[in-house]
Design a protein that fits this description.
It is built from 11 helices and 26 strands. It is an alpha+beta fold. The strands form 6 sheets. Strands 1, 2, 3, 4, 5, 6 and 7 form a 7-stranded mixed β-sheet that branches. The longest helix has 29 residues.
Length: about 525
Amino acid sequence: MTARITVDLIDNVKRDLRDLLADARGRLPYLVYADARLEVAEGKFATAENGESKSSGDDYGFAVGVRVLAGERAVAPGWVGLTLGTADLADLGRLLREALERAYRRALVNGELKASARGKFGPLGASLADTRLHPVEVREDTVHATYAIDPRTLPLGDMVAFTTDVSRRVAAVDPAIKHNYVSTLTQLTRELFASSEGALIDQAFALTQGLALVVGVVGEVSQELYDVVGHQRGWEILTAGVQEAPLTARPFVDFALALARESVELAAAPPLPTSERPEIVVTDPHYNTLVSHEIVGHPVELDRALKMETAYAGRSWLLAGLDDHHVGRPIASPLVTAYSDPALPGYGHYTYDHEGTPARRVVHIDRGVLTGFMNSRQTAAIFGGAPNGHFKATDAALVPLIRMSNTVFAGGARDPAEIIGEVDRGWYLIGHRIPSIAESRENFRISARKVYEIRGGRLGRLYRDGGIMADTREYLMNVDAVGSDFRLYPIPNCGKGQPMQTKKLGNGGPTMRSRARLAGG
């Protein structure tokens, strides 16, 4: 009988992996550092379309990643990633040793190429520095997953029945609902990190998600909406909802039905007009989830700012060079504070990143002033500052990138109703839809799910298919009110890198008021 791959596999390789790396440090010439990541996931999913079951499955993931820093004349990295299966279990020890040896040889070759380039290209070659890692506290720790319903014990048939029932109930909301797609997943992941410095970190995560996509059609107008409920918990979050402030959500069926009713309401609404000049705009926490993601989160990823990784999502206007940046300068109103905090709940929560760095809150904007970036050990060594634990990969076989944890605008002290009530003529944006962002994030256009006009401090007519556009710094500088209603939401599909890595993380914020042009559909 073929052996099964389960998260318990980690128990069998913990000490051997650490011993392998400790031995390499003394055995392999010119090796400076080595680490290895081993990840096992067990999960189930179900999908339904228009009230009928569409697909389901029960599967595992098993991957290994190894990094080595080595070199005689110059220190450089070597990486190896492996996606494994049941056939590899019997030879796992050998595969790990071979992966380490291959990463080591690649590091040596890269180091020689770097050293040769230094001698060939004058001042340009002199910019090729040895790869260094900022020191961190070396930990040995175990972090357990949190759940009420173990994802491994939930019957797949129950998932299929639940998912199909949600889809059926969404279809029955209104004859104007012409299409719906519903998916659910629940999984348990366990990650092992070991390094030649002596780190040995065993982290486990449960994750459950429900996604609903609905299309409402009124006349010739269709409105497609989709959104997710998700948390690092078990199946219970879909049946009972989430009440872990600031992360809250209703039970999944209620969430999906509300989305369906909203799509019909919007299909009957007129399109938002485009304005010629900036107007007063009030944005709700869900809308600011995407604003914090796009104009704060991505620009303060230090690998992007240093132009070490610019694929897909581009550079950052906040840093033109090591001596030409906005750190210490005002880039927003004094009412604006923004930070990334892995200690907050939800998708962006973790205790250690994928190089064993203890994760901690990093403040990016402190009362309007740019103060810091998310970093890795390598980028911290280049730019300065202590590592803050934001080096993450979607899969152990992939090279980690600097990624958001929970990147948010901090809450303020104002009553959101008062923020709207003070506006004689303006607009209220609810929920995010689609971003369009400049390559360096210096300006943006983000659409909203719903836009209401504000007249005399009260909400008026509802509009569809529109949002706002603005210069990033100008928009942040014009913030003149921040609400006390801070909320955190799951983001299921943040893309970065090449090959693309799609990451689940958290974003959020409170109600905010600023000025921007309306961008109609």
